[in-house]
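This week, think about what follows.
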Amino acid sequence: MFSQYQRELLKDWLAKRWAVLRLDLSLAARNVVRQRRRSAIGLSAIASGVVALLLASGFFEWNYDTMREGTIRARIGHIIVSRPGYLDAGAADPFRYLIPEKNDTRELIEAFPQVDTVAPRLSFNGLISVGESTVSFMADGVDPERERKLSGTLKLLEGADLSTTDAKEVIVGQGLAQNLGVKTGDTVVLVANTQSGGINALEVKVTGIFSTITKAYDDFALRLPLKTSQGLLRTEGVHAWLVLLDKTSQTDRTMKRIRDKVPQQELQLTPWYETSAADFYNKTVSLFSKQVLVVKLMIAFIIILSISNTMMTNVRDRTGEIGTCMALGDTRRTVLRRFLVEGTVMGVVGGTIGVILGIALARFISHVGIPMPPPPGMASSYVAGILVTPWLVADAMLLSVGTAFLAGVFPAWKASRLSIVDALRHAR
């Protein structure tokens, strides 16, 4: 603990530092206002760079958010609970990794306050036939009631969703429906291997046609009620429980809490971003992040050139003023510090203007919408927007202030190295 004397010394030192900082900020603000035209050019460069960064990053962020939530809320949930090894080897021997549809562990997971719902899934492959057409499919047996929460971004193009857990009905992906030539109301035959090794067939009615953000999935996917799929496979278990949370940001924290109470030898917890379904999302984020980095470097280069030019001109025009201040007792360190503060103030002011303009433009553009063609892996076009998050705002401000500070280093150093005699003579 500090003694009373030490606390007084610290308090006095902080008061002096604060007085110096206030003086430096006041002088910096006056110098920025005094050179209006020159400062306006520098501030415009900073604000324009911040606006460009927010719009570009916000566009990518909107795509990240849409793709992320579309993947989570149409196919896999936030956390997948399954038998150890199912995600790696389950396709080769799916019946080996069955877990009971309901047990105490599932109820334990559902009791967590962050958990919205836990939806069972029974996944299998087979053949679907209508008339003389037969193609392969990937099916998910689902609980229709729970699936309405989990699959919030699944888009029904025609017909209606599944009704009850044991109805003999099915909804099929858009691509699969086109390949088969079926429409809502048609009857199709599903053929699949049973748990005992035999083959079973079932007639079901197509009640709807759906699409997700992944065209490759829609070309083979169908969904049917859980009880119906269990009857087709002649089994009573499921392959996974898909855990849907209130917020995606809670995934890691909630998964850790669940792991502390769930035996890892019996069940494995996998976050959504480690599944194969999220592979396209992860690669897209990696690609876009590199593009954003290039944009940042370009903006930083423009800001540095603009602020450096402005500050060097200020040093040249204020050489006599600098000499007078140094003759009156200002040290070289004081001159250096004041020019650095001046550059930083320009970064703060320009960044603030850019953030305000960027947010306003982002909201306007999002309201109008950005028509986009179908990207790779999707079948339909969409209208994009711009999502400006607090993190993007902080990143843009850090870029503007940081580059403005760096841009002022060399001019500030040049100013601090001026000779007092030469600087005073320059004023004559």
In short: The mean pLDDT is 85. The first strand starts at residue 79 and ends at 82. Residues 413 and 420 are 15 Å apart (CA to CA).
